[in-house]
Amino acid sequence: MSHRILLAAITALMITPVHAETITLRVLGQPSGSGLIAQKKEQPFFEKLAATTGLDIKIEYLPVDVAGIPDTDGLRVLKSGLFDIVSLRGPQVSRDEPAMLGLDLVGLNTSFAAGKAHIAAFTPFVDERLQGRFNAKLLGVWPAGPQVIFCKPEVKSLADLKGLKVRVGDQSAANFVAKLGATGISMPFGEVQQSLARGVVDCAITGPASANSGGWPEATTTVLPLALQLAVNGYAINTASLKKLTPEQQAKLTAAIGELTTEIWAFSEELYEDAMRCNTGKTPCERGVSYKLTEATPSETDLKAVAAAVGDVSLPIWAKQCNAVAPNCETVWRATVGSQLGL
Q: What keywords are annotated for this sequence in UniProt (predicted)?
């Protein structure tokens, strides 16, 4: 009888459901002062992710600047497993993986519609690179918004940038302004406003919403609304962290982040239009501070110069860098994105 009781006890233990421990996912987010996309979309999404998806997870969200980690280290952080999910800043992490820059070369994404088509075409290659080199799965890509030019001296066209110092976001932009006779200078976003005020730089490139939140219009006079790039960012997860989830859980997480990126695309377009009105003293100005910048009108020559920049400047230089680490990089880009442009 004692044996039957023991057997029954063992059987009961075997069929008793075992509840897995709640999985904690550490998320490294956009900088705390980077603007409304981080404040209104990204951070609330991750903080509510467990509730909205029903996943048995706990999210620990931390902006990259609060964590004290350089935003250039996003891919290294993913590979190390220090954070499970990272909100990658495309231009910054392209130093570690040049393929990222292929999503947003200067002159490539001159509108949101163009950006969607070009980014979708090259994303599979970028994802393949991240999985192979950084143990990271790319879950979504989104734009901060059209990157335009803000200047302290009055400018009316790209030709007026000759001889000026221009803060740029990446090497592609630096190469473009160099061809115009300007000097591209790289510096953290938080230093730009004071640098403009003190004359360290004459002009700077960013999105209108970021410029507004950073107070750039207080130190500039003119905005030239030529969309040079879209400032592409993305969400990636460490592959080992992803494997901690069941296939069903993975599908839910992937779908949720896919919905987030779709929302950000639409929100980014709304922010651009509103911020352009705010920066130039027009109404309605709903999400920013109203300023009185002069809005220069891009000439046909300017528009052609930006469009030609892909084939003339940004592609040739970037292709050499990308091919150096991925010999098929340019070939894949030309077969996917380039075919849409007729290159």
A: Signal
